[in-house]
Amino acid sequence: MDATSPRVSGSPASGPLRERGPGLLVMDADSTLIEQEVIEMLAEHAGAQERVAEVTDRAMRGEMDFAASLHERVATLAGLEETVFAEVLAQVRLTPGAEDLIEEMHRRGCRVGVVSGGFEEVVVPLARRLGIDHVAANRLETAEGRLTGRVVGRVVDREVKEIMLRQWAGQDGVDMARTVAVGDGANDLGMIGAAGLGVAFCAKPVVVEQAPAAVHVRDLRAVLDLL
């Protein structure tokens, strides 16, 4: 692969993406749009951070099925009060350059989406605040004001992330050749492979090896170097 700058490597935009610019950019949330893993932040409140961090790391390296890992991690959250979501949202830190990247994409007429293996309860209000156009994430089940330790509905895994990229591109009338997907974990590889330009962002080795391009600094503005 050809290095395009000290901050990035791989193949920069080409074809329709280079000629007409991006029409849709889709990012992962945890460790991409934001600095942290929300499941680990929730687990800290449940006293299960170490166990959850270990399972998260294995899942992101592609060593275990993402859906199975999610159910295992979510089970540790049973009994937490719903008020924990507001506490975690207040602690979330955006990755440097996140707001600038979103603003620049919108300036270019590009739509922006976030598809997350994390949770609607945190991702949706964050996306709303940032003016993000599309959002998909998991939803945690609650009963009587407390988490049950289960997920409601489908799990946003590798397959669903790719499906959402394609669905949003169709809704926005954007050719897949003009889409960009950015993520850090093995569950992002489907959308990274399907996009016109797939970008591994400070990613696990398995993702860097398979992604057409990679960003090596924790600054989302570096994605612009590839465009």
Automatic annotation (TrEMBL):
One Gene Ontology BP term is: L-serine biosynthetic process
Q: Where is this region: Disordered?
A: 1-22
Q: Which GO terms describe its cellular component?
A: cytoplasm
GO molecular function annotation: L-phosphoserine phosphatase activity; magnesium ion binding
Q: Does the keyword Cytoplasm apply?
A: no
Q: Where is the composition biased (Polar residues)?
A: 1-12
Keywords assigned by UniProt? Answer: Amino-acid biosynthesis, Hydrolase, Magnesium, Metal-binding, Serine biosynthesis
Q: Where is the active site?
A: 28, 30
Q: What class of enzyme is it?
A: hydrolase
The enzyme's E.C. designation: 3.1.3.3
Tell me which domain of life the UniProt entry assigns to the organism this sequence originates from: Bacteria
Give the reactions, separated by semicolons, that this protein catalyses: O-phospho-D-serine + H2O = D-serine + phosphate; O-phospho-L-serine + H2O = L-serine + phosphate
Q: Which cofactor does it need?
A: Mg(2+)
UniProt pathway annotation: Amino-acid biosynthesis; L-serine biosynthesis; L-serine from 3-phospho-D-glycerate: step 3/3
Q: Does the keyword Hydrolase apply?
A: yes
Q: Give the similarity note.
A: Belongs to the HAD-like hydrolase superfamily. SerB family.
State what protein this is by name: phosphoserine phosphatase
Q: Which gene encodes it?
A: serB
